[in-house]
Amino acid sequence: MTSDKSKLGFYLLLAPLLLWLVVLIILPHIGLFFVSISEKVGVREYETGLGNYAVFFNEPLYWRTFARTAIMSISTTALTLILGFPIAYYIAKMTRGRTKTTLFLMCLIPFWVSELVRTFGWMILLRETGIISNALQSIGLISGPVEFLYNDAAIMVGLVYTSILFMIVPLVTTLDSLDDSMIEAGYDLGGNGVSILREIIIPHAMPGIVSGCIVVFMLSLGNYLTPILLGGKDSLWFTGLIYTQFITRFNWELGSAFGFLLLALSSGIVFLGLKLSRQTLTETMGR
Amino acid sequence: MIPTVPQSNVLKWSYRAYVTLFFVYLALPLSVVCAFAFNDSVFPSLPWEGFTMAWFFGDEAPFIGVFHERSILRSIGTSAFVAIWVAGLAVFVGTCNAFLFVRHNFRGRGFLYILMLLPLIIPGVILGISILVFSSTVANTLEDATGLWFDGLRPGLILVILGQFSFITTFATLVISARLQKFDLSLEEAALNLGATKWGAVRQVTLPFLLPAIVGAGVVSILMSFENFNTTLMLVGSDSPLTITMFDKLKHGSTPVLNAVSLLLIICSAGLGLISLLFQRGKS
After folding, report:
1. How does residue B259 score in pLDDT terms, banded at 50, 70 and 90?
2. E strands along chain A, which residues?
3. First and final C-alpha spacing in chain A
4. Which chain A residue shows the shortest CA-CA distance from B265?
5. Dihedrals φ, ψ of A224, to 5°?
6. How many other C-beta atoms can be found within 10 angstroms of the C-beta atom of residue A18?
């Protein structure tokens, strides 16, 4: 009797999960794939084929934008790691008690604020009539207004800013669990700062580094706001192409193919990152 | 480098200088957004023309404040409507998922768990277009078959809610599962021994224990829904949520009324975030 009842309970719990995953995740992606391999031959007439993918590889604008997006996302990830690691280390190891909580909270606050607001802030700072241009003029470093917006450096600054918190949080968590006595032992055994960093701290922080890098890479690759607003009209970002195909050109078949390529790239890099560091998705994300 | 091991002063101070510089970098964009909400000029840029509250309360063109700008007020309402639905659905499904994954051991559990995590690694734009394509296909098929209209499956608020729900649920599940794992099962057994029914024990013992996580997950869901852009952009119809309205205004250049909205958003989201953190910390 009780087993029947708990079986019913089990299915009742399973139902929402399956409904969510099947209707909103699995079926839409299968649908996206089928649309991406159909070519329009007439009004509401379609043929199956790889034509949309061929268009992507034959048009330099498309695959160059794709490569550019990938390379800039990888550079953003690397830059975020290099800039974020010392901060995470400082919060985890150099501070105690209330200072630590305060610094950690100060890192979290910008993450709660909408990305749009953060990007807006950078626009005010970087534009021709903006703060940085004016500040440099008043010091006398430049003679006239300079436009800092609408270039790749501006995109990178914005991308690092929006994603650095996702690097710092997992790093602080893993570094926190490293016992200080390990580092002291390293010094006692004659190690110097560099060798201790390489032999003790980085291996211990590896899970945090991997999950931080994966999240930052994903966020940069899938970002739309920052490249479009900070990069201006000519900024080429792959999500921008997808948006154009779907909403402006109404070419859903090509847009779906683009979407699938982006999905393949992001899952490929995530898979590679997990394999190289010998971790699983469950360990990295499910915390 | 740790405090107990002595280091040269130069190193120590340059490290501190770097950390300070980093926090300036973090605070800079948000502070300028807030500061220019009070600039008495129609552009959110220098020169500084003096202090004004017109971007909040003004009702004369061109100084139309937040509280008199119809399009912004309407989109705040839309965002709130979407956020409440998303948070409600995500917390409900997240709680069910937490019980399923923590309490039950079944075939395919590991596989389903990985599937549950997938929305985290799918870019938001892709989630948006896949749901858009799928719902349009379903709508076309149904309309061809029945001759009726299915507007709910066309871009609009229902799709925005479903799109945001599809990945926010993962976060809700993770937050609630983490707390359920800490629950001592013997408490529930004690309730059963004292004559409670299974459901009664869950409702009176387990759910109160989970409450901080449920509230936390709800707040996080509301924040994420409010600030979501990528998925929403692909699914939005004629009623646009706040982020979409702000994006349109930003692209075409706008008055500091946007700074005023942003300032209100910063205050609300930082406040909500701090409250949820304190709430979770206080209970655990």
Report:
1. confident
2. 38-42, 45-48
3. 37
4. A113
5. -125, -45
6. 13
**Whose CA is closest to B131, among B20, B249, B236, B240?**
B236
Phi, psi of B47 (to 5 degrees): -75, 160
Q: Is the pLDDT of residue B5 over 70?
A: no
Select from A12, A31, A229 the Cβ nearest to the Cβ of B250.
Answer: A229
| ipTM, interface predicted TM-score of the complex | 0.83
The hierarchical CATH code for the domain B79-251 is 1.10.3720.10
d(CA A148, CA A154): 7
At the topology level, CATH places domain A59-285 in MetI-like fold (1.10.3720)
Instruction: Indicate yes or no: CB of B269 within 8 angstroms of CB of A113.
Output: yes
* Contact check, Cβ <8 Å, A222/B119: no
Asked if B43 lies within 8 A of A129 by C-beta distance, the reply is yes
CA distance B204 to chain A (A): 17
Q: In the prediction, which pLDDT does B15 show?
A: 87
Which residue is it, tokens 């200088």?
B17
At residue A2, does pLDDT exceed 50? no
What are the residue ranges spanned by the domains of chain A?
A: 59-285
Cβ neighbour number for residue B9 with a 10 Å cutoff: 8
Mutate which of A122, A124, A261 to test chain B, going by most B C-beta atoms within 10 A? A124
Query: Quick check: B225 contacting A, CB < 8 Å?
Result: no
- Per-residue pLDDT reduced to its tens digit, A234-244: 678 888 888 88
Instruction: Please report, for chain B, the start and end positions of each structural domain, with discontinuous segments joined by +.
Output: 8-68+254-284, 79-251
Write the residue in A17, A180, A263 that is nearest to B126 by C-beta. A263
Closest Cα partner for A235 from A172, A152, A166? A152
Facing residue for A117 by CB, picked from B5, B266, B277: B266
* B54 interfaces chain A, CB cutoff of 8 Å: no
For chain A, the C-alpha Rg in angstroms (whole number) is: 24
Query: Given this model, what pLDDT does residue B284 score?
Result: 47
B247 and chain A in contact, CB less than 8 A: yes
